């Protein structure tokens, strides 16, 4: 605590000594659970703030657990205005670059409780990594390290002879209040944002006494700006829309006439069947070639924005007969072959269930022999072959097919 400061700082120094046994860290955070009778209004951003349901609304008799424990349908909430809502803490996740200040407001008396993170330097996953913020509880979290939206790839793993030390924080917990009788919501939020700016400008702090926290004169720096302008957030259950839109047929894109912004589903997920099981899905991309270079090698670039317990297979077809029911294998002129490419089982990002638009980025550059293509109509099939849950799937960033390098050919 600092003299004259309306709040307190919190940090931790984590260490794994060389002779200690192997160890892993999935998640580590600082959590505060506030008085549910006092703090009812939550704010994460200018356009993400509202009065929130009570934790009681999630209990049996008032709420129904949905596909996973965090998602609860409120059918008999204490306050009727929340009836029919799905409460899910992952709806309030935020990318690190935007996760600077969030918290709760009590209107009587007018008091705000805020968690301020002045820097991303100790956070895992970089500026686009998504983490939890505040949610019904009322709960406020300072996420120091998390495998959410990334899975196993982001778990810290230390061997038995691996020394390691890291400073997490400091983060600031700020309290503010009003003495007059005006509506406190906007003033307290604006004041918290200003305090956040003050903390960011003061970073790196000069008060930590630990030699493990480097002061400003021992650091370099760089700066930049990344703009993300999403107009809306995913709602609960969007993955189930795929079976409604494509109950039997494959999702298809026709190059030259289709619009990927409207014709391409947000994720290649499994299809739910009538018996509540799930089946693999295949998407098709149809395109025409004026000529096919049979002696050349084409390059298919697949960039995945996320993957969860998925296996992506690529098929290429000539003259696919309409209505033919093909198994999940490569077929060229109706001759069965193994996939031209398979990712193998990849990803534990869990982005689909957690209302995200990306997890860990994966890029695959796939060589396609020219003999697989032909003049005229061609179709590329992309199959996500794992199908035991609704949350297995991939999201695409871009897909690009490049022709052979004519300079090298010549």
TrEMBL record:
The protein's matches in Pfam families, at most eight in alphabetical order, are given as: CBM-like, Rhamnogal_lyase
Origin: domain of life = Eukaryota
Q: Which UniProt keywords apply?
A: Lyase
Q: Cite the Gene3D superfamilies for this sequence.
A: 2.70.98.10, Galactose-binding domain-like
Q: Which GO terms describe its molecular function?
A: carbohydrate binding; lyase activity
**InterPro entries, alphabetized:** Galactose-bd-like_sf, GH-type_carb-bd, Polysacch_Lyase_4, RG-lyase_III, Rhamnogal_lyase
Rhamnogalacturonan lyase domain boundaries = 239-401
Give the protein name, as stated in the record: Rhamnogalacturonate lyase
């Amino acid at each position: 605590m600092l003299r004259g400061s309306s709040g307190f700082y919190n940090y931790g120094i984590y260490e794994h000594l060389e002779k200690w046994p192997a160890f892993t860290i999935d998640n580590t955070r600082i959590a505060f659970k506030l008085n549910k009778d006092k703090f009812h209004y939550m704010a994460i951003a200018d356009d993400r703030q509202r009065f929130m349901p009570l934790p009681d609304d999630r209990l049996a008799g008032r709420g129904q657990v949905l596909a996973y424990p965090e998602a609860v349908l409120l059918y008999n909430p204490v306050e009727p205005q929340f009836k029919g809502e799905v409460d899910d803490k992952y709806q309030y996740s935020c990318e690190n670059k935007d996760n600077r200040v969030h918290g709760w407001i009590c209107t009587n008396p007018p008091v705000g409780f805020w968690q301020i993170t002045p820097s991303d330097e100790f956070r895992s996953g970089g500026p686009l990594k998504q983490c939890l913020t505040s949610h019904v509880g009322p709960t406020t979290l300072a996420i120091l390290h998390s495998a959410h939206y990334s899975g196993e790839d982001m778990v810290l793993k230390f061997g038995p002879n691996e020394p390691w030390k890291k400073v997490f924080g400091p983060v600031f917990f700020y309290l503010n209040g009003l003495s007059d009788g005006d509506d406190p919501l906007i003033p307290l939020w604006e004041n918290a944002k200003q305090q956040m700016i003050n903390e960011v400008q003061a970073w790196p702090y000069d008060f930590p006494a630990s030699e493990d926290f480097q002061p400003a004169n021992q650091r370099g720096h760089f700066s930049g700006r990344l703009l993300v302008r999403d107009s809306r957030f995913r709602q609960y259950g969007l993955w189930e829309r795929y079976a409604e839109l494509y109950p039997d047929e494959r999702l298809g894109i026709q190059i030259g006439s289709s619009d990927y912004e409207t014709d391409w589903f947000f994720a290649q997920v499994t299809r739910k069947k009538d018996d509540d099981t799930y089946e693999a899905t295949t998407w098709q991309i149809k395109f025409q070639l004026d000529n096919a270079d049979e002696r050349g090698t084409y390059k298919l670039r697949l960039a995945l924005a996320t993957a969860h317990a998925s296996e992506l297979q690529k098929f290429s077809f000539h003259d696919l007969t309409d209505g033919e029911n093909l198994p999940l294998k490569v077929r060229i002129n109706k001759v069965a072959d193994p996939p031209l490419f398979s990712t193998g089982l990849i990803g534990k990002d869990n982005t689909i269930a957690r209302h995200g638009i990306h997890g860990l980025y994966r890029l695959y550059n796939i060589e396609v022999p020219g003999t697989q293509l032909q003049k005229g109509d061609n179709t590329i099939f992309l199959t996500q072959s794992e199908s035991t849950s609704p949350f297995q799937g991939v999201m695409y960033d871009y897909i690009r097919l490049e022709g052979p390098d004519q300079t090298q050919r010549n």
